Amino acid sequence: MNKYADQVLKDLRAKNPNEPEFLQAAEEVLSTLGPVLDANPQYKENAILERIVEPERVVIFRVPWVDDKGIVRVNRGYRVQYNSAIGPYKGGLRFDPSVNLSVLKFLGFEQVFKNSLTTLPMGGGKGGSDFNPKQSPHTPGKRCSDAEVMRFCQSFMTELFRHIGPDTDVPAGDMNVGGREIGYLFGQYKRLANEWTGVLTGKGLSYGGSLIRPEATGYGNIYFAENMLAMRKQNFEGKLCVISGSGNVASFAAQKLLQLGAKVLTLSDRSGSIYVKDGITPELLAEVMELKTVKRGELSEIKAKGVQFVAKKNSWQIADKIDAAFPCARQNELNGEDAEYLLKHGCTLVGEGANMPSTPEAIDKFVRAKIMYSPGKASNAGGVATSGLEMSQNSERLSWTREEVDAKLKGIMKSIHDNAWEAAAKYGKKGNYMVGANIAGFTKVADAMVAQGVC
Question: Which of 147, 219, 64 is CA-nearest to residue 210?
């Protein structure tokens, strides 16, 4: 590792000993920057690494709300505004018990480079709360009611609204923050600020949302993978694919794969995985999407013919033959043992749809095997890219057609692929998309920071 990057990492570990996810993300990026740091001494002279690993601002606040029984509940809210060198902070909000400062700093740090790769003028940020909409606070096994989610969102936004704005910070959805939650958050922002602005993305079509936005992260992941395959003169026709997750990212990745002639064998959630030996049909996928978005149920409830449910098991070690894998659930879901299984059973492509879903051991195995491996900051950037397109439509008071947005998304994902490929080749790592994505994302932000002085 470059001596400068190594020293910054040592200092970072000393300052943040209880933030494993953040340290993992920082090491994954900084450990690959040696060639560009050696070639650009101005980055060290301007302390770019020391500055880029520190958030510009972290806001932590309490979120009091009242449940359906009239009991006052209190959660913790966060917004990590990481870097605004190339544009306003942009990144999702996550509601989940796993949310803490380490997780949000890792997500915000990744978002900086992901947004840089999109070619759009967006900085990086992330936020959320340890609130769990999937668990009622007073009835075990039940979800929060819509009214409880609304009251929580309104309280959360009552504090957050003073820290965000269309030219300051534009949040979006993330884990457990979908159309329902974005609607409640936007309504409260509009009430408090007394203005209608595109301050949140992922909005409903009736109030400023963009076509293709729900599909964008999943579709974008597959568009990126298509570009990787094209470099080897291949396509998805007949390829056997395994996917983790069953939310928007996983479901729409599966939908796009089916459209391209691939077979999707698995989907998963916290209850376990479904495995269909002959491939998930469009009808079964539609049933899964309704279960998740309307009924808010678990995959264990699927009883369709030919569907095998495997309780408490991930998607990676079920199928006997695998051509491509798409981790679309959460961080560190795919470990070294899973990577060995995938490689042993024929996998030649891994496209990350989630943020940092592969452990360092798994990534090392993929890179050493020289398969087509794309890190999440590159291949799952389609969601935030389309959020950027939604911001543009809001600013212009326009609504683009589905075809227009999809074409722009395809173009952005090709640009991200090509930039990562070219950056890797330029610094002697041809074909290594992880190194290429890190260098391409970093240099744009670093050059902007140098140009703007010490700030």
Answer: 219
